[in-house]
Design brief:
Elements: H1 2-63, E1 83-90, E2 94-102, E3 110-118, E4 150-157, H2 160-175, H3 177-196, H4 203-216, H5 219-229, H6 241-248
Antiparallel strand pairs: 1-2, 2-3, 3-4
Helix pairs in contact: 1-3, 4-6
Length: about 250
């Protein structure tokens, strides 16, 4: 019996080996085809994602068109120690003010502080548009500002005079040189988007975004917005494009 088994194995060894080789060849071809299809699909998805991201950036810029920097934040600025206004920057998209303020430290007691508001960028997903510089400035002397989304203390000095001399040579744009380089890119995109498009060009996308937001808020809030914005309907599907745009600019 053992001899017969050995004989059978030897007789079919080549056949089995050939079949296994053929199996590897055919499964390899299938795997190659699958890999190629996956690669093509991933490439197509990647291109679609680029289009989606570009569209999201454009609609973001369009929705920011009618916003202005919140300059009321400057009225809230306070410090228990010495504080002195030095310079301002404003271009309709961003408004900044530069101060020298006593910080309560034993050495380098005076800091230059830049605070303000920008209608572009911010936290979370907005950082992909423009990351705004923001630092905690709650020193012992209690420097405070509310309603602003930019707040930074680039340098500290031994005296008020040293701080003033530094700011006289540099200024806001130079002090925040790296940030302004990124800001100019975002501002250029903003200007280009608003020169080429309007919200009506993306009505279907905007209406979908507004519809999701509308469903997430209470009926009392909906009624309030209908009244305050002068909307023609409380049903997004029945709203005019202009009404949808009014809501879109708030979200």
């Amino acid at each position: 019996n053992r001899e017969k088994i050995t004989e059978i194995r030897e007789r079919y060894h080549k056949t089995i080996s050939d079949l296994e080789n053929q199996m590897h060849i055919e499964t390899g071809k299938i795997q190659d085809d699958t890999d190629e299809t996956d690669k093509k699909t991933d490439s197509e998805i990647g291109e679609l994602q680029k289009i989606i991201q570009k569209t999201e950036r454009i609609t973001y810029y369009l929705k920011r068109k009618y916003h202005t920097p919140d300059t009321k934040c400057f009225e809230s600025i306070k410090n228990h120690g010495h504080m002195e206004f030095l310079e301002k920057y404003s271009d309709g998209i961003m408004s900044l003010q530069l101060y020298v303020a006593e910080n309560g430290r034993p050495t380098n007691k005076y800091s230059i502080v830049i605070v303000g508001d920008c209608i572009l960028g911010g936290n979370d997903y907005k950082e992909s548009i423009l990351k705004l510089p923001y630092q905690y400035t709650g020193w012992r002397n209690g420097f405070d500002c509310s309603g602003n989304n930019i707040q930074v203390t680039p340098r500290h000095f031994k005296s008020i005079q040293d701080a003033k001399q530094y700011c006289a040579k540099n200024g806001i744009c130079q002090i925040l040189k790296e940030f302004f380089a990124e800001y100019e890119k975002a501002k250029s995109e903003y200007d280009e988007a608003n020169s080429k498009y309007c919200l009506a060009d993306f009505e279907e996308i905007i209406r979908t975004q507004v519809s999701k937001h509308w469903e997430s808020i209470s009926q009392s809030r909906q009624a309030e917005m209908v009244q305050n914005l002068g909307l023609s309907s409380s049903d997004v599907s029945e709203m005019s494009c202009d009404d949808v745009a009014k809501i879109a600019m708030l979200i």
